[in-house]
Amino acid sequence: MTREQLEHAIRAACDVADDTEVYVFGSQAILAEHPRAPAALRKSIEVDVSPRHRVDRVDAIDGAIGELSLFHQTHGFYVHGVPIEEAAKLPDGWRERVVPVGGPETTFGKLGWCLEGHDLAASKLAAFRDKDRDFVRVLLREGLTEADVLLQRIATLPLLAEDKARLTDWVRLTAGALKKRPGRARKKPRTR
Question: Does 93 share its domain with 143?
């Protein structure tokens, strides 16, 4: 997925939801901070959104621009509408750190509030699926997420203490292993 496709998804979701703003909380939220993120982070063709003011319209999003819709067939990606609180475990304070995507020329006055990278990584680890761990591993390897900040966010996830401990151990082991890889200089974070 590209940043332009994300902007298109935001416009379309806002139009269908009759809302001017949506939260973007799936993997493609990374494009807000890193529009040219590595391909390994952009391979999903799904954009997870939740209308900010019209959460009751998530089903309309799925019906109009969701998986297998004409929109999906036409554009090669789709938008999944779901209430954010039901779909993701998020660190405390995530709403204060969201990254805006939008502008008069790109989203025509609509706005996507994308999860900040560390919040996205913590949320991915809370799900702890293979694909989510792979995603976070790439974030760490590419220097797009800092292990220390990620550990702080994990500490505030709405999870049991033993689950937080498992995630903390995973981050420490993974970050340590990435530092030890010979010939792999840590890359500078990509900017807009």
Answer: no
